[in-house]
Amino acid sequence: MALDKDDVKSRVIEIATSLIAKHGSAGLQARTIAKEAGISVGSIYNLVGDMDALHRIVNAQLLDELGVAGTGTVAELDKRGETDLTTRLLELSHAYLGFVTENRTAWNALLAFNRSATVDETPDWYFVRLEMLFDVIADELRATELGSDEQKLAIAARALWSAVHGIVTNAYVGEDKRQLVETIRMQIDILIRTFVRGLRA
Amino acid sequence: MALDKDDVKSRVIEIATSLIAKHGSAGLQARTIAKEAGISVGSIYNLVGDMDALHRIVNAQLLDELGVAGTGTVAELDKRGETDLTTRLLELSHAYLGFVTENRTAWNALLAFNRSATVDETPDWYFVRLEMLFDVIADELRATELGSDEQKLAIAARALWSAVHGIVTNAYVGEDKRQLVETIRMQIDILIRTFVRGLRA
Questions:
Q1: pLDDT at B79 over 50
Q2: CA distance A116 to A113
Q3: CA distances from A12 to A16, A45, A62, A81 (A)
Q4: Which of A103-117, B59-73, B85-99, B130-144 is least confident?
């Protein structure tokens, strides 16, 4: 039975996801995908557009997964009745660390993709997914002094998100990889504890 | 008059620096360098090793320049008699922002290089340069409560460095590039002010 167009598109995205997870964006070759999917290179371009568009679809899935990891952590914290901001932010940071560790190659490819993309060619639905990630942190900070100013809250959420991101993605530099996760957790710990103390001061 | 070996090596590094500044690591092609330097591809490998080794030399220069920007900022702050930690850390962060803005392509290439490099093949002199950057921040934090514990001080310096780095390199995502520098400065401002307040609380 022949697959319909949507099935073939799903299959192409699935193959692309797997290639990026294994080899980063260098692995995303139309010819490789065509061969694995048993279709022509031209069909791929018809189905999903160019390789950048396909990479963006894979990235959006990855951002969704990270979003689910974030909201899942929040749900668990709420269920436990955890109200301490430091604990909540630490667990969210550890969720991010776990996500990056599990998806290192694909995540690095996403970062490189975002860095080289221009705003003009980036569709709104991609931005929306990024904003949703920052919103998870904004919701946590809302009960602090920052909550009285929506703009300041958004900036602070973005700052804290990027700060933890910087620690997670930068930590390996000059570090013994065996001690990596421990080093990252210690850095996150100092940053979050001091930041929250500063918010309360 | 024929150039001696050191002169040719300097010229090769100069060309590599310029290629990376313009096109990132994709621009670092032995054939392009050979053509521009008027030597054979084989000579390049004899002089500097492979393209990774050459990229590492260019990166070390870049790290040195960033180090000079950092220590230069510290010297200027000292000359002005500036003792406020928040002001000092903010100006150091702005120096980093300025450096990344001026060297965006080469800096992104360095980050990608570091990410893909393994610790085993990285020479000590490369790590030393990275540590020196963290030390600039450690020196600033020494007069706080962190100063009583050298290990904690090192972790905090690294955390704060990486946090600002994360803000600077991540901020463009989902942002209008025209408002970029202003957005980054606002994020740095909230992070540093809150962190220092937390240290003093």
A1: yes
A2: 5
A3: 6, 10, 16, 43
A4: A103-117
Nearest alpha-carbon partner for A49 in A102, A74, A13 = A13
Those of residues 104-163 in A touching chain B at CB distance below 8 A are: 108, 112, 114-115, 118-119, 126-127, 130-131, 152, 155-156, 158-163
Predicted confidence (pLDDT) per residue in A165-186, tens digit: 999 987 655 455 656 888 899 9
Tokens for A73, please give them: 């952590």
- For residue B13, give the amino acid letter: I
The count of other CB atoms within 10 Å of the CB of residue A35 is: 12
Rounded to a whole number, what is the distance in Å from the CA of A192 to chain B's nearest CA? 9
Task: Give me the phi and psi of B48, to 5 degrees please.
Answer: -125, 0
Q: Give residue A174's pLDDT.
A: 47
Question: Which 3 state secondary structure label does DSSP give A81?
Answer: coil
B142-160 confidence digits (pLDDT tens): 999 999 999 999 999 999 9
Residue of B nearest to A124 (CA): B174
pLDDT of residue A116: 75
The Cα A114–Cα A81 span in angstroms is 36
pLDDT at A108 over 90: no
Closest partner residue to B167 (CB to CB) among A166, A172, A200 is: A166
Q: What distance in Å separates the CA atoms of residue B146 and residue B142, rounded to the nearest whole number? A: 6
Three-state SS for B97-121 is HHHHHHCHHHHHHHHHHHHHCCHHH
**What does the CA dihedral B36, A112, A160, A150 come to, rounded to 10 degrees?**
110
Long-range contacts of B74-79 (CB under 8 A, 24+ apart): B74/B136, B74/B139, B74/B140
pLDDT above 70 for A101: yes
For B23, what's the count of Cα atoms within 13 Å in the CB-facing half-sphere? 9
Residue type for position B179: Q
Could you tell me the pTM of the whole model?
A: 0.89
Least trusted range by pLDDT, from A2-6, A47-51, B43-47, B177-181: B177-181
Helix, strand, coil % in chain B, rounded to nearest 5: 85, 0, 15
The alpha carbon dihedral of B176, A135, A200, B135 has a sign of: negative
Dihedrals φ, ψ of A149, to 5°?
Answer: -135, 105
